[in-house]
Specification:
Layout: H1 7-12, H2 18-37, H3 43-58, E1 62-63, E2 66-67, H4 71-80, E3 88-89, E4 92-93, H5 95-110, H6 120-125, H7 132-155, H8 160-163, H9 176-183, H10 189-194, H11 201-218, H12 238-249, H13 263-274, H14 286-292, H15 296-310, E5 320-325, E6 330-335, E7 338-348, E8 357-366, E9 370-371, H16 374-387, H17 391-394, E10 397-401, E11 408-409, E12 428-431, E13 442-445, E14 454-455, E15 469-471, E16 475-477, H18 480-487, H19 496-505, E17 509-522, E18 526-528, E19 534-536, H20 544-552
Parallel strand pairs: 5-17, 7-15, 14-16
Antiparallel strand pairs: 1-2, 3-4, 5-6, 6-7, 7-16, 8-13, 8-17, 9-12, 10-11, 10-12, 13-14, 18-19
């Protein structure tokens, strides 16, 4: 799969806009008029114009062997500037151009991007003593690098929807031409690019953790712990010393390094377990040792992948919104930047993955019926029906055939279930409200192509599990009634008493929100929590590796 070098730039390059054509014509006339009025273009401007105009015929623009990716954007911006260069003069690289070149050497790397992708080899190889032709190359290489970094900062280096059909992003959009014009007037062009990055605290905190992990790697990383039996309080020996050294290197332990597993070490193990989504029992068993032995380069890659995902987010999540972290198994509600509710969630099994997208909750349903999706009915429910003739009645299901006016109720005892297979299963299953209803007491609806929503669940015991991937794709909520109360707190007809009374009545009731609320289903395997603690989680769906691999690939030439 090819890496997209610049999603935002590629949008600029999709076609030559009428505005660009007008600008190009205007620039040509300016050159003609200049010859008559004394404002003739300089030789450098003429060479820059000829270079860009010749690219229209060749339909390819290169500097040395590097293809320039923002070709249409460059062809639009420079005519608008009457081909005045931004980074060079006839005397060589300007101070502004030198600042950009030095900024490119270090700043993209801080955000998990590769400086080498931004023509640095070309810039270093160009010898200014060769004068004008080289200066034109230098000008175009730096402008293309500027536009590429701007695109990657703004909307990510990769297109997530080409990597994962279940990932629908709503990335930021901006015309980068004016941003390049703005850089031409600024002493520090890097600050113009930095302003395109996500400004959320969560993103900036993750950037800081990336720097800290790289520092730790440079100082030797952290040691591995030899495979063996579970380590626990009271143990001693070389493996305990390895455990203590590993906890200290990760910042979870600050005491002396020794071979004794004491109470302080047990507390450090619990801290490590909590921030890796493990059962915090203080025992260094198989799962904990496996997490401790994940090497530091893998953790660095994990942060880089999740920084890229941050850059796929929209400009704003909203002043009031719901965030579900699928990989973290939690939901949070934010209002004016403040968390007002959080809870555990259950998400889709690895073979029925919860998709990534954004929507808007417009209504909720109290005591919902469950119309079982046909795929689940045929694959999951049919074997249970065949095994127990009374399964449907005991679980509150109605067997139906047909839709709308043609719908009819079917008596399960009249069906020869031995002849029914997943392929010829033509029935519908509808589960009535009640204690066995798979949706519980409340569901929250945000229309989407995946038929995914938030809902209650009768399987309350699953919320006690650390890894909670048990659903068929929808999000099960630990505290659904609390969420309903929060979303209806601006409706005087729907206080907590009214909600409880409706639930007790047992009848399905639709309640529309006076203020619909955005909901964002995301997939973060690492983040920094409100207390400043970096969290890591298992990549339950295997979504990290494709992103990591694509980010390692050089852009096409």
């Amino acid at each position: 799969m090819m890496t997209s070098p610049s999603t935002a730039v590629s949008r600029l390059d999709r076609s030559r806009t009428p505005r660009a054509c007008v600008a190009l014509i205007a620039a040509v006339f300016l050159g003609f008029i200049g010859a008559e009025t004394g404002f003739a273009e300089t030789e450098l401007e003429a060479r820059l114009r000829n270079r860009l105009e010749s690219a229209f015929v060749a339909e390819s623009l290169k500097v040395m062997d590097d293809r320039l990716h923002a070709q249409q954007a460059l062809r639009r911006v420079y005519p608008e500037r009457a081909y005045q260069p931004i980074w060079v003069t006839e005397d060589g690289l300007t101070e502004r151009g030198d600042r950009l070149a030095r900024w490119l050497e270090s700043e993209p790397r801080k955000h998990g991007l590769r400086p080498a992708d931004y023509h640095l080899d070309v810039v270093d190889a160009l010898d200014e003593s060769q004068r004008l032709p080289v200066l034109v190359d230098l000008e175009l290489a730096l402008s293309d690098a500027f536009l590429m970094v701007g695109s990657h900062f703004l909307a990510g280096r990769l297109n997530p929807e080409t990597l994962d059909s279940e990932w629908h992003a709503n990335r930021r959009h901006r015309d980068l031409g004016p941003v390049l014009h703005d850089a031409a007037t600024q002493e520090d062009p890097g600050s113009v690019l930095t302003a395109l990055l996500p400004q959320a605290d969560g993103y900036l905190a993750l950037v800081e953790r990336l720097a800290l992990l790289r520092e730790r790697r440079n100082s030797g990383g952290w040691p591995a712990i030899a495979v063996g039996a579970t380590l626990r309080e009271g143990d001693a020996g070389e493996r305990v010393a390895e455990l203590v050294a590993r906890l200290a290197a990760g910042g979870d332990y600050s005491g002396p390094i020794s071979e004794s597993f004491d109470e302080e070490v047990a507390a450090a193990v619990r801290v490590f377990q909590a921030r890796h989504g493990l059962k915090a029992d203080g025992l260094a068993g198989r799962a904990t040792l496996a997490a401790l032995n994940v090497d530091i380069n893998t953790r660095i890659d994990q942060i880089i992948v999740n920084l890229e995902r941050w850059r796929w987010l929209p400009e704003s999540l909203g002043n009031r919104y719901i965030l579900v972290n699928i990989a973290g198994f939690y939901l949070e509600v934010f209002e004016e930047g403040r968390e007002t509710l959080s809870m555990r969630v259950v998400v889709g099994r690895p073979y029925r993955r919860t998709p990534v997208f954004s929507g808007t909750i417009t209504y909720l349903v109290l005591n919902p019926f469950w119309e079982v999706p046909s795929s689940i009915a045929a694959r999951d429910k049919l074997p249970l029906i065949k095994a127990d003739p009374n399964y449907l009645s005991h679980q509150g299901y109605t067997l139906l055939e047909g839709w709308g006016a043609d719908e009819r109720v079917v008596d399960p005892s009249t069906v020869d279930w031995t002849q029914i297979t997943a392929r010829n299963f033509r029935y519908r299953l509808r589960q009535s409200p009640g204690p066995f209803n798979a949706l519980g007491q409340v569901k929250f609806m945000f229309p989407n192509a995946f038929s995914v929503y938030l809902h209650d669940s009768p399987a309350r015991e699953l919320f006690a599990e650390e890894q909670r991937s048990f659903s068929s794709g929808c999000i099960r909520l630990e505290q659904p009634v609390n969420l309903a109360e929060l979303l209806l707190n601006d409706d005087p007809n729907w206080g907590r008493r009214a909600i409880d009374a409706s639930l007790m009545a047992g009848k399905e009731q639709v309640v529309r929100l006076r203020r619909p609320i955005p909901v964002h289903l995301q997939y973060w395997t690492t983040w920094v929590d409100a207390d400043g603690v970096v969290q890591f989680r298992e990549d339950i769906y295997g979504r990290d590796r494709p992103v990591r691999d694509e980010l390692r690939e050089a852009p096409p030439t």
